[in-house]
# Entry
Amino acid sequence: MTAPSTAADLTDVYPAYLDHLADADEYGAVDVALGLLDAGLPAERVLLDLVAPAQSEVGERWARNEWSVAQEHAATHISERVVAAVAAHANPRPTGGRVVVACMDGEWHALPPRLVAEVLRLRGWQVTFLGASVPAAHLVSYLHQHDAHAVALACALPVRLPHAHRMIEACRRSDVPVVVGGRGFGADGRWARRLGVPWAADAPAAAELIADERALRRVPPAQLSHLADDEYASLVRRRAELIDGALADLRERVPATRAYTAAQLDSTVSDLGHIVDFLAAALYVDDASLFTEFVEWLTGILTSRSVPAAAVDLPLAHCATVLRDFPRAVRALTLGRAALLGAAR
Amino acid sequence: MTAADVRDFDPGDGRISTPSTRRAPAWSAAAPVRPTAALPPLAPDRGQVPPDWSEVVEHFREGLVVCDADGVVRHISPVAVRLLPEVVPGELLAAAGVRGMSDGIPGAFTHRGRRLTARCVPLSGGRCCWYVEDVTESVSRADALLAERARSAFLAVVGDKLGNPLHPDRAAAAVVRLTVPSLAEVAVLVLAPRSGRARWWRASRVDDETPMVDSGVLAGGDLPTAIADGLTGIEPHAVDWLVEQAVDAGWLPGLPGVESAARVVPLPGGDTPVGVLLVARRATRPYDEDDVELIRAFAARAGAALTTALLYRDQAEVADTLQASLLPVEPAETAGVQWGTAYRPAQAGLRIGGDFYGSHRLADGGSLFFLGDVSGKGVEAAVFTGQLRQCLQALHRVESHPGRLLRLLNDALLETTQAHGQGRFATIVLGVARPEREGGLTLTLAGGGHLPPLVLRASGEVETVPLRGMLIGVVPDQRVGEVTVRLAPGETCLLYSDGVTEARGGRRGDEQFGPERLVTALTGCQRMPAPALAERVEQVTCDWLAHGDHDDIAVLALRAVGPSGRPSRHLHAVPAPADPDQQRETGA
# Structure
């Protein structure tokens, strides 16, 4: 392999790198990354310009149904091995305080926070990466035992926002400043502002924020007064009832669903659960766009798997009928159905 | 002074009110709201005998100063004389130099140590009358109330911030941060020295927002006398030399050395103070008795928080060490095997539980591996897993045949449980993996009542290994199941605990995940590396739970690495040997 020396070479090796991910070829992928390092590309650039975009491509290939879940998991594992190899190669000496990086409880997208952790490590912080889906109790007991300068929490799916909020509050009670990141807080971080927590768009932004202790401690108040209407709490209580109702409705109107296998039924129930949970998250941060973005995404996923958009519209209509006394929920559902029409067209 | 002079004016005590006057109440609580319509307007003359007005006016709470059109004082009531002795009849009011009355603008001001309010009302003939009231007491009552409220609010914030057990360093930083700006412009906390070294934290005010916090270490002998005294529990009362000491020590950046006020309070600990807090601010705001009382109340809370934090740290260190010894150890790298593990204890705050797994290298190049689950939960169960793992660690050196090893383990276990008089038992799958010459692995498995392992074939199918057997630790002559499985390169064997299949979730949260769903989740995953596969099992299980309670979850996956696959390397920078000699690499 010829040694690449400029950023243009990174674009040259990118397709080969993606092929290694597709083949789950750990050594091939690691060799590409180490080759770039040997050619003088800084480790941070390798992580952010090679590993990160390749991993988003992996997610998109899954969404387009080009890759199976198994392929996606395998590729993600290879990406993690590449990050480990790059980190071991760079081996920076820690000079700063301790920063704890973790995924929210229930959040399994561990690679983006892992990249943040490594970028922080490269910038001299002593980083502890607690991994995927860290239970709040585990994180809090860790913070009680180890003095941390800051906690960086990642959330890739907005459906976790209510849990994320509880976790943020738990960290705050330990008097440790919190930074959040990930697509779960909205592309512009607007739901982080709602929850009153500093948000970083990417790893370098997170590093800058963590280096500025006064910015970390400047906490804008959460804007959650809308929760007083109890719509969120009621929806969470009625989750099972809504899923059951939507499933019965689907079976009545779409005869094909009656012949579903157990696995198909499970994934239908899981999709219905997602609809209710995303609706609940939208009510929690009082932003219907959270729900409409989800509906557009789900429609894309299902369409690529040959499920008609009408299969999504039925449960939305069902929820709107059952929840007619909840004005915020009805509004989100109405906008969601409109988005569905737009996405299906 | 005639009735006409006072007719349209409110004496200010609220007893008489006329519709034409508008007056802002000095303190709203004391000004009763009365409907003005209920009172008849003052009649100019009802034919009554007029009282002696000057005598009446003398008993007003307000003092009166009447000036003529030129501003010369013409009349002054006894109350006004007492409040404003420098105002002399026959001279210009402005000449008296009473601040707040000379410029003709009404308002509140301080005069001779009293809080006064004054308002000027025009009279007929260009004259005017000043109504002067002494509001010292009501103002000081209101001030005291506000100060008390501020103190309670401050202590409430302190209670909130220090109420949780914190890491000692974080608690110390929180203490100094809370002190600024409410109690001080600079605050220094010195912890009681441990092995001759005293750690300190300092917060200094930068602006109205967050203070700057720094910290460091001092040798115990270098402490200023006042601090060293404070650490023995003595609170120094002579305050002037305290500032000098602190300034000499270079502790008060940004404060003028001489014109500063400082206090030192011990933070109460167990028997001796846990530390000492020095607070300092500009002498323009000296520390009065109320302030010192507040600092002591704060110190009591801070002392309690620091004591708790230190106690918590000591106990957490012990717990952490014990927990670390009970955590499953990641399998050692073995030629021909790619390991994958996942472990999620039921109690999230605790990192340990009743599930266990592990592996040991065998002298013949093979590898012993196991995964099991003991009866009971939490710490007790974790301790039991530790005993089992130690048993296996010792026994595998004398017996490496899985079936015979399992029987030995059963006997050892039975002996200990009988000795302790407790019925403890466990389920386990124990196996030996041996690499084959043409690639792939041979697994010899022994079953002790555990869930049968799954095998992911290269075709994508998932097989259940027919492995039976009885629980271990129950009967002396235990029945052990034994099976041999061959894994072609790229095929994987998966061991898991019942925390996976008995996870409750689904639509209503009461449905078990079950082995069928597990098989479905694994089907088609034959190309996944073992760590990714173990994580996938953990993830689908936790997704099924949807944040509900769960039992301990443990997964151990072994994937046969093909002969074409490069051998594992510790360091990626180390070049792979041209002809990998597995025996030499793994050693014995």
